[in-house]
Amino acid sequence: xxxxxCRVLGLDYGAKTVGVAVSDALGLTAQGVEIIxxxxxxxxxxxxxxxxxxxxxxxxxxxxxxxxxLLNNEIxxxxxxxxxxxxxxxxxxxxxxVLEDERLTTVEAIRTMNELDLRGQAxxxxxxxxxxxFILQTYLDREQNKKQRTE
Length: 151
Known about the structure:
Layout: E1 7-13, E2 17-23, E3 30-37, H1 45-58, E4 60-67, H2 77-93, E5 97-101, H3 105-115, H4 120-150
Parallel strand pairs: 1-4, 4-5
Antiparallel strand pairs: 1-2, 2-3
Protein backbone atom coordinates (compact mmCIF):
# COMPACT_ATOMS: atom_id res chain seq x y z
CA UNK A 1 0.00 0.00 0.00
CA UNK A 2 1.40 3.38 -0.97
CA UNK A 3 1.87 6.25 1.46
CA UNK A 4 -0.59 9.12 1.52
CA UNK A 5 0.23 12.04 -0.72
CA CYS A 6 -0.45 15.68 -0.07
CA ARG A 7 -3.60 17.26 -1.35
CA VAL A 8 -4.09 18.99 -4.67
CA LEU A 9 -6.23 22.11 -5.13
CA GLY A 10 -8.27 22.50 -8.33
CA LEU A 11 -9.37 25.91 -9.59
CA ASP A 12 -11.80 27.03 -12.28
CA TYR A 13 -10.80 30.66 -12.86
CA GLY A 14 -13.52 32.88 -14.29
CA ALA A 15 -14.13 36.57 -14.83
CA LYS A 16 -15.86 37.09 -11.47
CA THR A 17 -15.60 33.73 -9.71
CA VAL A 18 -13.13 30.97 -8.94
CA GLY A 19 -14.54 27.50 -8.38
CA VAL A 20 -12.48 25.54 -5.88
CA ALA A 21 -12.09 21.79 -5.39
CA VAL A 22 -9.64 19.75 -3.31
CA SER A 23 -8.42 16.18 -3.52
CA ASP A 24 -8.66 13.63 -0.76
CA ALA A 25 -5.38 12.87 1.06
CA LEU A 26 -4.67 9.91 -1.24
CA GLY A 27 -5.05 12.02 -4.39
CA LEU A 28 -7.85 9.84 -5.79
CA THR A 29 -11.01 11.93 -5.67
CA ALA A 30 -11.94 15.59 -6.01
CA GLN A 31 -14.55 17.31 -3.86
CA GLY A 32 -16.00 20.77 -4.31
CA VAL A 33 -15.03 23.28 -1.63
CA GLU A 34 -16.45 26.70 -2.49
CA ILE A 35 -16.81 29.49 -5.00
CA ILE A 36 -14.71 32.60 -4.47
CA UNK A 37 -16.46 35.72 -5.79
CA UNK A 38 -15.19 39.18 -6.63
CA UNK A 39 -16.84 42.34 -7.91
CA UNK A 40 -14.41 43.01 -10.76
CA UNK A 41 -12.22 40.74 -12.81
CA UNK A 42 -9.15 42.81 -12.00
CA UNK A 43 -9.72 42.71 -8.21
CA UNK A 44 -7.66 39.66 -7.26
CA UNK A 45 -6.06 40.50 -3.91
CA UNK A 46 -8.82 38.89 -1.79
CA UNK A 47 -9.15 35.99 -4.20
CA UNK A 48 -5.44 35.21 -3.94
CA UNK A 49 -5.52 35.64 -0.15
CA UNK A 50 -8.42 33.16 0.11
CA UNK A 51 -6.59 30.65 -2.07
CA UNK A 52 -3.55 30.99 0.20
CA UNK A 53 -5.79 30.26 3.21
CA UNK A 54 -7.16 27.15 1.49
CA UNK A 55 -3.65 25.99 0.58
CA UNK A 56 -2.66 26.16 4.25
CA UNK A 57 -5.91 24.67 5.57
CA UNK A 58 -5.73 21.61 3.30
CA UNK A 59 -1.91 21.26 3.24
CA UNK A 60 -1.93 21.61 -0.55
CA UNK A 61 1.30 20.86 -2.42
CA UNK A 62 0.10 21.36 -6.02
CA UNK A 63 -2.51 23.59 -7.66
CA UNK A 64 -4.32 22.53 -10.83
CA UNK A 65 -5.73 25.44 -12.80
CA UNK A 66 -8.27 24.99 -15.56
CA UNK A 67 -6.84 26.23 -18.86
CA UNK A 68 -9.55 27.44 -21.27
CA UNK A 69 -8.02 26.84 -24.67
CA LEU A 70 -10.22 27.50 -27.66
CA LEU A 71 -11.74 24.43 -29.33
CA ASN A 72 -9.21 24.79 -32.16
CA ASN A 73 -6.46 24.43 -29.48
CA GLU A 74 -5.39 28.08 -29.73
CA ILE A 75 -4.95 30.43 -26.78
CA UNK A 76 -7.52 33.20 -26.63
CA UNK A 77 -8.05 36.16 -24.31
CA UNK A 78 -9.48 34.06 -21.45
CA UNK A 79 -6.51 31.68 -21.60
CA UNK A 80 -4.09 34.66 -21.59
CA UNK A 81 -5.75 35.93 -18.39
CA UNK A 82 -5.50 32.43 -16.92
CA UNK A 83 -1.75 32.36 -17.64
CA UNK A 84 -1.35 35.69 -15.84
CA UNK A 85 -3.39 34.31 -12.90
CA UNK A 86 -1.17 31.21 -12.85
CA UNK A 87 1.91 33.42 -12.56
CA UNK A 88 0.32 35.31 -9.65
CA UNK A 89 -0.58 32.03 -7.92
CA UNK A 90 2.95 30.70 -8.26
CA UNK A 91 4.42 33.89 -6.81
CA UNK A 92 1.92 34.07 -3.92
CA UNK A 93 1.90 30.39 -2.94
CA UNK A 94 5.38 29.22 -4.05
CA UNK A 95 3.64 26.06 -5.28
CA UNK A 96 3.67 24.47 -8.72
CA UNK A 97 0.57 25.38 -10.74
CA VAL A 98 -0.32 22.80 -13.37
CA LEU A 99 -2.53 23.85 -16.29
CA GLU A 100 -5.33 21.40 -17.09
CA ASP A 101 -7.30 21.61 -20.34
CA GLU A 102 -10.82 22.58 -19.32
CA ARG A 103 -12.51 22.78 -22.72
CA LEU A 104 -15.10 20.12 -21.93
CA THR A 105 -15.53 20.68 -18.19
CA THR A 106 -18.38 23.17 -18.61
CA VAL A 107 -20.24 20.63 -20.75
CA GLU A 108 -19.70 17.99 -18.06
CA ALA A 109 -20.77 20.42 -15.32
CA ILE A 110 -23.98 21.24 -17.19
CA ARG A 111 -24.70 17.54 -17.73
CA THR A 112 -24.19 16.89 -14.01
CA MET A 113 -26.46 19.79 -13.04
CA ASN A 114 -29.14 18.44 -15.39
CA GLU A 115 -28.83 15.01 -13.77
CA LEU A 116 -29.12 16.62 -10.32
CA ASP A 117 -32.07 18.69 -11.58
CA LEU A 118 -30.44 21.93 -10.40
CA ARG A 119 -32.33 25.00 -11.58
CA GLY A 120 -32.17 28.78 -11.32
CA GLN A 121 -29.85 30.29 -8.74
CA ALA A 122 -28.69 26.91 -7.43
CA UNK A 123 -27.49 26.04 -10.94
CA UNK A 124 -25.72 29.38 -11.36
CA UNK A 125 -24.05 28.97 -7.98
CA UNK A 126 -22.86 25.41 -8.59
CA UNK A 127 -21.41 25.55 -12.10
CA UNK A 128 -17.93 26.90 -11.19
CA UNK A 129 -17.47 24.56 -8.25
CA UNK A 130 -18.57 21.54 -10.30
CA UNK A 131 -16.24 22.60 -13.12
CA UNK A 132 -13.37 22.81 -10.60
CA UNK A 133 -14.17 19.26 -9.48
CA PHE A 134 -14.01 18.01 -13.09
CA ILE A 135 -10.76 19.87 -13.76
CA LEU A 136 -9.15 18.38 -10.66
CA GLN A 137 -10.57 14.89 -11.19
CA THR A 138 -9.21 14.80 -14.75
CA TYR A 139 -5.75 15.65 -13.41
CA LEU A 140 -5.99 13.09 -10.55
CA ASP A 141 -7.12 10.32 -12.90
CA ARG A 142 -4.23 10.99 -15.29
CA GLU A 143 -1.71 11.02 -12.42
CA GLN A 144 -3.16 7.76 -11.07
CA ASN A 145 -2.90 6.16 -14.53
CA LYS A 146 0.74 7.26 -14.76
CA LYS A 147 1.49 5.62 -11.40
CA GLN A 148 -0.22 2.38 -12.41
CA ARG A 149 1.75 2.19 -15.66
CA THR A 150 5.06 2.54 -13.81
CA GLU A 151 4.29 -0.04 -11.10
